[in-house]
Fold this protein.
Amino acid sequence: MLTAIGLMSGTSLDGVDVALIETDGERIGRFGPTAYRAYTGAERDLLRRALADAAPMTDRDARPGASADAEKLVTRAHAEAIEDFLQANGLSRSHIDVVGFHGQTVLHRPERKLTVQIGDGRALARTLGIPVVFDLRAADVAAGGQGAPLVPVYHRALVNMQNSDGPTVVVNIGGVANITYIDGDTLIACDTGPGNALLDDFMLRRTGEAVDRDGRAAASGRIDEEWISRALSRPFFALPPPKSLDRNDFAALTIEGMSVQDGAATLTALTAVSIAAIAQMLPKLPARWIVVGGGASNPTLMTMLGKRLAPATVVRGADLGWSGDAVEAQAFAYMAVRSLKSLPLTFPGTTGVPAALTGGVLAKP
């Protein structure tokens, strides 16, 4: 078993998740501690500018506009997150075999064989004095895959630790929502549509708050079903898995004419409806849905999912002893070890890549 730390800064732009696991790249030997390093308001503003400046990119190595400064921020924030994590948990660098570093996605256009995650993996390895595996999506996209979702292989390892009866779906709700369908050897995955991104951006514009805390605004609003029907007419929703999204693919969906409460309720419902709609595209109707990511902490969204997915069981990963918000960080620790061992990270059923494929770049201190 190797000791690995995983890092994740997702499309919600909230901060850096840190998690330690022990794994051989197949089995999970032990879950270790987790931590979180929040981005400041100024840091989030810089990342939002980098997202806007990255939109016209055609060269994945270019760093136009704010993206150069944002890359330095991402690298520094991740180094700080690990250094604080090691100190808080009494760990030395020598205890850590590898770090899995996802970076910050600023552009995802697999149809153009282009995916860009900013963050300097080599500089991070030098700063930490620990080997770092980074750039984990690029090989898949270069081979014709979607490059996302990237963590289904870890979801499978988690589900295999449970006593599952019938097909299970793991739902990860970050800025974008995605699912992993697991039924024996069958592994299928895709993005389903907006997760928290549209809602978070709406709340920030209208209230100055970056999230709908505990789903309170949505809980008191009215869902505009006609608006949802128009949104679901977009071609993406009719595509079968595998498929993936850029965080801003649905940014043009405007909802500004609604009150804060009605807008929050409608955007939350869009996330729930688009997740539930994927059930009809799977080989069998899942018996259980396990929700992880930031969306699992939104009780209004969880209630909507429960109603849309009934009679299937809907539970939070945290209720099963999983690490809730840290699942993706754990996944990148797991995949870093798989990368070291040249084990597959992506599969035809998860990203559409022609054959199971490993990935990642190893940076040594």
